[in-house]
Amino acid sequence: MKTLLLPGLAMCAMLNPLHAVEEKKKKPAAPPVLYGGWAAGKTFTYKVTGVTSAAKGMTGDPYPVPVPKGIPSYKVGETVKFTIGKKGELLAPKGLKIAFQADGITSNQYINIPTAKAPTPNFAFVLKNSSTNEPVGGVALTFYQIKRGKGFSITTTTVQYTLN
């Protein structure tokens, strides 16, 4: 009886791994998570066609200023490669990282909601074809920086980029 039991167990042990491999092959891969129709890793490129950087105090008109430190600085004519991050965020060189917020059918919208550590919002809109979900038309980026001066003085700098 022992002689029949051992070869039978050995045969089962050899066949079991084959069954497990076959079982893994049968399960289809989960579809990728989409953020506004785009999976993580999607890339697209646009050229900067407009840059506006202006500051405004509590009174007076806005006045032009250089792009402040802490805000991505792109020049007109520069090509920017965008990538969709693991959580759907919009990524680009020079520190651009804006969280995915909504699929607006004709655009994907990105917003960094203000927090105590980062009290100013950043916005991005990427236009897309509503039928194919492919990026088309351009990108708009808006950044804000608020600086407190002496007393009650506050200066808000707004930087806007247009990319086509």
Structural features, described:
- The chain is of the alpha+beta class and about 160 residues long.
- The chain has one domain.
- The protein contains 1 helix and 12 strands.
Q: Which range does the strand content fall in?
A: 35-45%
Question: How many helices does DSSP assign?
Answer: 1
- Uncertain residue ranges: none
Span between N and C termini?
Answer: 80 Å
Shape: elongated
Q: How many domains make up the coordinates?
A: 1
Element-level helix/strand string: HEEEEEEEEEEEE
Number of strands: 12
Helix content: 10-25%
Q: Report the biggest beta sheet as strand number plus sense, adding barrel if it closes.
A: 10 strands, antiparallel
Task: Give the arrangement of secondary structure elements.
Blueprint: H1 2-26, E1 34-35, E2 38-39, E3 43-56, E4 63-64, E5 79-84, E6 90-92, E7 96-98, E8 100-103, E9 107-112, E10 122-128, E11 135-148, E12 154-163
Antiparallel strand pairs: 1-2, 3-4, 3-5, 3-12, 5-6, 6-7, 8-9, 9-10, 10-11, 11-12
